[in-house]
Amino acid sequence: MTALCFISKKVKCHATKIHKHIKNEENKVRTSVIQVTGPHISKRPNTGLWSHSDKPLQSTILKPVKSSKTITVSKSYNNFKKDAVHGLQNNITRSDKLSNMFTKMFLPVQHQTKSSKKSFTHDQIGAIVGCSSFLLMIGLFLGITLWHIKQKNNIESQYRTLKVSDIAMQNIKLLVLGDGAVGKSCLLISYTTNAFPSDYVPTVFDNYSTNIMIDEKPVCVGFWDTAGQEDYDRLRPLSYPQTDIVLLCFSISGTDSLENITSRWIPEIDHYIPDCPRVLVGCKSDLRTSNPDECVPRTEIEKIAKEAGLEYYETSALIQDGLKHCFDSAIRCGLAGSRKKTKSKSPFGIFKKKKPDDPIPPVMPPAGKAPWVEIETSTFAEDWQKMLEDPKFSDVTFLFEDGQQKLQAHKLVLCSASKYFCQILGLPNSKTNQLNNIDNKQISLEELNSGRIEGIAAVYLSEENHKAKITTVEISANITAKTFARVLEFIYTGVPRIPEIHEDLSEVQELCRVAKIFKLSMLETICRNIENEEDFLNPSIGTYLNDETGKEMKTLFFNKPSCCDVIFKVEDQSIYASKVVLCARCPVMAAMFSGKFVESDNEILTEVKIPNTSVECFLALLEYMYTDHAPIEETDSVGIVVLADEYGQSRLVGLCELYITKEVDKSVTKRIEKAEIDVIGLLLTAQAYNANQLAGWCLHFISSNYIAFEKRQDFSKLKGENKDHVEEHRWPPLSYLKEVEVYESEMKKRGEK
Question: Using CB atoms within 10 A as the burial measure, which of 29, 242, 317, 498 is most buried?
């Protein structure tokens, strides 16, 4: 018994040492786990006092305080668990050594006992020591395991008290579903970037992640965007696994996408991810203000949402309305569902048989972004500047200094840019608004020649070679030709060309005085901006004035028989135009009327036949020349592309290309395979008429939707380089489709549908 007591004391002593060692390891881990980058309270060495410090804590035991600062994990519990298991293995090794130590320590005691006491044999002693070692090993194993669980729960409870329970960032997967072109991609882009995308790029499949603060906690949200077309019904479910929250999106501008929520999308997610939470999201809420009659009433939407058991949120990606509330609520819902899925681990879970995981869907390769359709910068101002420098077909002459100097100009431009010159030159007012005609009463020649009109000395008409009437205007002697040239630059281009370095502002002040005489208020504003060193505002003023000049030019001169010198014959109809506009805005027309062509004959009225086009397309081309805008939406946009290429209007081609790409997107919102629009025919037309951006876009669109286009009858039209390009860049690639087949076969083996 003495030996057993001695062994018990030794075992207890050794166990105490092990406990102290583990306690020290705990303190080290607790010290290295947390690094606070803010105010904290620490215990001073060798004292019982606690002190406050603003410096980051390095290696001391913390007494936590409430803080909104960031807490980062520098050593995880998994690492501590590995250390504990490693220590346990060392303790088991020590138990074997302890058995030998007990035997050596016991023998001397046996020889020193009295003869009256019972002695033990070596075999009995070995058996006792072996049993003690075995029991000690089991006790240490259970003790350390239970202690580890208890300490982990205590520390986690302590962290919850500190309101920083989620030390590691939580991850959730957010999936958006809905019909095509309802605004899913714009919704995600506008929320994550705080800006509405200026150029729309249709989504096939896309996913990206971003970090968001929800209730003062960081959350890594993976956004998964999907294609709503029926052509992708097979691939879309591969995006569903491990989804935490689904946003069912529709457009409030129509009932079709809303009806598909209940008839198509809810049954689909009920089949693939029945336990996943979902919310209903109405897109384009800004249309309730701009087009209220076309929007579905909110009460009707809320009724449908209530019947389906869904929370409803209405958003506008364009004006950033309701985005934060919608996504924050959806993410909270996803986090709550994610926590419910997470099961607490049992301390004896290692003895349970692990269930085999479901096969992971193959990673979908990115489809790539469609090429941008770039629009050239307007050349409206530059074109008219060139016409002012070389005034062909001019019909107004300004005289200075008793006729010693003169400047030539065009009545069409002067009257379009200035109501004052419209009164002076005697142009008939527009009949569209009689109220404006009262304000813009013409000034008679008698009054102009009386000297009572400031800035004008005399005005008279003359004929040049008996072909065209020329209006001559004598400018007052107090206005120089140099200053008036700046006035003409402003009228033609919107901004006068004044040197950037204004050491002497006398020229600017003189220009401002003359602008006031001719009632050019915007020119006065430009001069004041220069004087106040705010001339950076002037280019925007010029852009606005050019746009207004183009509108007025269309009103006064576009397709007007009384103000033309060219008649175009298109489909047996007459279209009227001015050579000044045609030569200024179109190099082909300039060569036609200024070179050695029949049309360049200096007759007052020239007639030109235009074959192989429609009246609507040719009028759209002329309107672009007059205004820098064209009614592409109301006309055959492809026909305008053909005509614009023929007459060298590359910017107009770009405008049509951009419009056509958007129209293609709208036409395939439901299904590409059976869409009426002929994208392959559009590709061939674009390549034939130098619409290179449209051709590149069509190739990308066909390649990215290969599985839909290969089922169309017109797919056989692709030949040569077009066929090779589509086969090379097809999406999804064949390698991915093979991986999908393997995945589907494995799921079928497991009884999954």
Answer: 317
HEC readout, 416-476: HHCHHHHHHCCCCCCCCCHHHHHHCCCCCHHHHCCCCCCCEEEEEEEEECCCEEEEEEEEC
Confidence of residue 110 (pLDDT cuts 50, 70, 90): very low
Q: Per the CATH hierarchy, to which homologous superfamily does domain 380-557 belong?
A: Potassium Channel Kv1.1; Chain A (3.30.710.10)
pLDDT reading at 593 higher than 80 = yes
Which amino acid, 96? Answer: D
pTM of the model: 0.67
Q: Which has the higher per-residue pLDDT, 704 or 71? A: 704
Q: Tell me whether domains 170-340 and 559-629 share a fold.
A: no
Beta-carbon-side half-sphere exposure of residue 375 (alpha carbons within 13 Å): 12
Q: Is 242 helix (H, G, I), strand (E, B) or coil?
A: coil
- Contact in structure between 725 and 702 (CB atoms under 8 Å): no
Give residue-wise pLDDT tens across range 171-220. Answer: 999 999 998 888 888 899 899 888 888 665 556 667 778 898 988 889 99
The CATH number of 170-340 is which of 3.30.420.40, 3.40.50.720, 3.40.50.300, 3.40.50.1820? 3.40.50.300
Q: Which residue has the tokens 């052509």?
A: 231
Q: Which two tokens stand for residue 153?
A: 């729960």
Cβ neighbours of 720 (radius 10 Å): 7
Burial of 320 (0-12, 13-18, 19+ CB in 10 A): middle
Cβ proximity of 602 and 596 under 8 Å: no
Question: What distance, in Å, lies between the first and last C-alpha atoms of the chain?
Answer: 70
Beta carbons within 10 angstroms of residue 435's beta carbon: 7
**What is the token pair recorded at 697?**
């876009």
CATH 3.30.710.10 fits 559-629, yes or no: yes
Residue 220, SS3?
A: strand
Q: Percent of the chain having pLDDT more than 90? A: 43
